[in-house]
Design a protein that fits this description.
NAD(P)-bd_dom_sf, alpha/beta, 7 strands, Fungal_SecMetab_SDRs, Rossmann fold
Length: about 260
């Protein structure tokens, strides 16, 4: 794969599914100075056991941080903690991966489902970008390299075809997940506007569709294994330049229409 050489990496929702697989694959890379901040809602809970085992085996590389994207004070606290551990080099790569799915149509979607998906899938990543921005800015300055890349300073938003206004309507009968789709369309707009704001700091920002993957979120019918999806996404992340800034790609590197 096109190696991701980013040293300091933070991943949200890192305790399972694509987040956990991303942590595993970053460990396979022989980047010596790498530090992974693996964040999740409940680091001590049963759903984080695999991540805890991984951190035990690689204590010098992985730090598990509590970060609940639904809780603004948790996001703030996590940023303070990570900031105290980062040093002067800042944060090179922020992967906004945490997300939830809610099923429903116009007739069946509840107000609660709409609020929950929006809080987790849009407001959460917005707050994460906001709180970690100073560390991304520090990394961009410290690099001394012109242009944009994931090795310098980047925000990668893990999105979905479900957020594509062009592609989703034809899939809607198969995937009646209206709250999820609307929140991910909002997440895509967040990506575009964040890219606009971060341009001046040379912090790369883009949306990445992992494919339909066999995870708790993707379900058992999905055709793609986590390993294959993440291998593809890391290839894409490693090859990004300013040309893809503000863009929407899938795990094979193909452009996805908004």
């Amino acid at each position: 794969m096109a190696a991701v050489k980013a040293c300091n990496i933070l991943i949200t929702g890192a305790n399972r599914g694509l987040g956990l697989e991303t942590v595993k694959q970053f460990l396979e890379d022989s980047c010596q100075k790498r530090h992974i901040f693996a964040t999740c809602r409940d680091p001590d809970g049963p759903k984080s056991e695999a991540l805890r085992e991984l951190a035990k085996k690689h204590p010098s590389v992985i730090t598990i941080i509590r970060l609940d994207v639904d809780d603004p004070s948790s996001v703030k606290e996590s940023a303070k903690k990570v900031g105290s551990l980062l040093g002067n080099n800042g944060l090179n790569l922020l992967v906004n991966n945490a997300a939830i799915v809610a099923n429903g149509t116009i007739q069946t979607s509840s107000v609660e489902d709409m609020k929950n998906t929006f809080n987790t899938n849009v407001i959460g990543p917005l707050l994460v970008i906001k709180e970690y921005l100073p560390y991304l800015q520090a990394a961009a300055k410290a690099s001394g390299i012109p242009g944009m890349s994931s090795n310098k300073a980047a925000v990668i938003n893990i999105s979905t075809l479900g957020g594509s206004m062009t592609r989703m309507p034809s899939m809607y009968t198969q995937f009646p997940v209206l709250p999820y789709c609307i929140s991910k369309a909002g997440f895509n707009m967040l990506t575009v506007l964040a890219a606009e704001e971060l341009k001046a700091d040379e912090i790369l920002c883009m949306a990445l569709h992992p494919g339909w993957v066999k995870t708790e979120l993707g379900g058992a019918k999905a055709p793609l294994e986590s390993k294959e999806s993440v291998e593809g996404m890391l290839r894409v992340i490693g090859s990004l330049t300013e040309k893809q800034h503000g863009g929407f790609l899938d795990y094979t590197g193909e452009t996805v229409p908004w």
